[in-house]
Specification:
The protein is built from five helices and eleven strands; from the N terminus they run βαββαββββββαβαβα. The radius of gyration is 16 Å and the shape is globular. The strands form three sheets. A seven-stranded mixed β-sheet has the order 2-3-1-4-11-5-10, sandwiched between helices. It has a two-stranded antiparallel ribbon with strand order 6-9. The chain has one domain: 3-Layer(aba) Sandwich (Aminopeptidase). The protein has 213 residues and is of the alpha/beta class. The longest helix has 17 residues.
C-alpha cells in the first residue's frame, strides 16, 4: 500500500509551516505501507496541480493532505470541503480569489473518504488532542481538499482522500500572546497514528463526533 502525505510550504510571513515539518518527520513506512512525502505550494490552482502530478507519479491508494490552522488547540481531522474560494489573505503568489467556485461544475461539497473518527480515536489513544472539524476554511487548505475529493469522485485518481489541520508549533507563537501551539514531535506522532488508522480501517467506526457549533 502507498500513502501520499502532503504538507504546505510556509505562508503569511511565517518561517515554517508545521504541516510540512510534521510530514518530514514521518517514517518512510508505517505498518508496512510506503509513505510518500510531497510539499505543496500555498497557492490556489498550483496546489491542486502539484498534488495531481504527485498522484499520477506515485499512484497511491490513499492521500492525506496536511495544513496549518493557527489558533486551533488540537489536530483537526476535516470532514468536508466546500466548492468555494474566499481568501482572507493573499496566497504565496499574490492571488486572493473572493467568492469563486473551485470547479464550476463540481458539487457544492465533498466529504472525506478516510476513516476520520478512527483517525481521531487513534490519536487520542496516543494522548494527543484531536477532534473532527466541520470546516476546512475557504483558503488554500479547503481548496486542495476539495480538489482532491473532486478528482477522486470524477476521475478515480486514487482510492481515498482527506485532510488534517495541525496547530502552530511553539516557536511560531512567541510573539502571538494567548495563541495555542503543539510540539512538533506530538504533531508528527499524531499524524503517524492517523495514518495507522487509515491503514487498519477500511470502514470508519460509528461513534459520536458531532458538535453543537
Amino acid at each position: 500500500m502507498k500513502i501520499l502525505v502532503t504538507g504546505f510550504d510556509p505562508f503569511e510571513n511565517e518561517a515554517v509551516n508545521p504541516a510540512w515539518e510534521g510530514v518530514k518527520l514521518l517514517p518512510t513506512r508505517i505498518n508496512g505501507a510506503e509513505i510518500i512525502k510531497l510539499q505543496i505550494p500555498t497557492v490556489f490552482n498550483d496546489s491542486i496541480k502539484v498534488l495531481l502530478e504527485g498522484i499520477e507519479k506515485f499512484k497511491p491508494q490513499a492521500v492525506l493532505c496536511i495544513g496549518q490552522a493557527g489558533g486551533r488547540f488540537d489536530i483537526s481531522v476535516e470532514r468536508i470541503a466546500i466548492n468555494l474560494n474566499d481568501a482572507r489573505i493573499k496566497d504565496n503568489k499574490g492571488n486572493q480569489p473572493i467568492d469563486n467556485k473551485i470547479y464550476d461544475y463540481g458539487d457544492n461539497a465533498y466529504f472525506s473518504s478516510l476513516p476520520i473518527k478512527s483517525m481521531v480515536e487513534y490519536m487520542k489513544k496516543e494522548n494527543i488532542p484531536a477532534s473532527i472539524s466541520n470546516t476546512a476554511g475557504t483558503f488554500v487548505c479547503n481548496h486542495l481538499m476539495y480538489g482532491l475529493l473532486y478528482n477522486i469522485d470524477k476521475y478515480s485518481v486514487t482510492a481515498k482522500g482527506g485532510f488534517i489541520h495541525v496547530p502552530y508549533i511553539p516557536k511560531q507563537v512567541i510573539n502571538k500572546p494567548n495563541t495555542p501551539s503543539m510540539d512538533l514531535s506530538l504533531i508528527a506522532k499524531g499524524l503517524e497514528a492517523a495514518i495507522t488508522a487509515i491503514i487498519e480501517n477500511d470502514k470508519d467506526i460509528k461513534i459520536t463526533g458531532g458538535k453543537e457549533f
